[in-house]
Amino acid sequence: MEFTVSPKYQMQLVSKIEKAISDEYFSDKNIRFYIEKWYESDDFNWENFQIKNHKLTGEIDLSATLHSMNGDTLIKIAIDMGVETPDFLPSIPTFRNEIKSDYGNAHATFEKAFKQIESHPDMAIGLVNSVLESIIKEIFKDDRIQTKSKTGKTLYDLTCDLLKEFQMFPESEMPVEMKTIGSSLLSINQSIEKLRSEKTNVHGKTSEDYVIQDSLYTYFIVNTVTTVGLFLMSYYKIKFPKIKVQEIMPDELPF
What we know:
The protein has two domains: 7-80, no CATH class; 92-239, Four Helix Bundle (Hemerythrin (Met), subunit A). The protein is built from ten helices and no strands. It has helices spanning 7-25, 28-36, 62-67, 71-80, 92-102, 104-115, 121-139, 155-165, 176-198, 215-239. The radius of gyration is 23 Å and the shape is globular. The relative contact order is 0.10.
């Protein structure tokens, strides 16, 4: 995937990547080892690798090295280091913050998916399918929800049950606008589920089967999942607001 990344955005991104790499690897030696892995071993050219003194010393001018890279490589390194790239994945920062505290399993799975977008595009799609399943299952743990969803259901069936609880399941007597939203959500989640089952290696494939290899396609799917997930979580918060537990002061106790 080749991005057209503005010089201004690259400058901002390099600064964030440099900090993330330094925080992760500390020493010049380990930083250098990490950067080397972004060059093809057979085509490695030390002229493209900015060294403070000599390559044998292990010292590296990380800032100059990153600035010498193209926008496409910078985006890939940012994703590998967990640096947010909102210009290319606009919903991700908000989505991450939303699921971090209340949807622990979904958060852990999403972090794995995020780092595999470039290296294993098909596996990233399989993982984000699981993220949506985890979010919906977590919502169903709320005792206030009347619709009960059986264990073992897949994303499409879980979505059907949740939309019924939200009174958004597309039925003939509901307003056309609500029916359209419900139908769209069902179609999106059904498509994500089918992609996971039919176009990834999750269930194993033969050499003749088509498997998604284009990361650009995966970026679109990940953005779609975050948008759907944010909507479902926001609607859940509105329909079932958190119950505030009133703190009782010691002098208010009846004994």
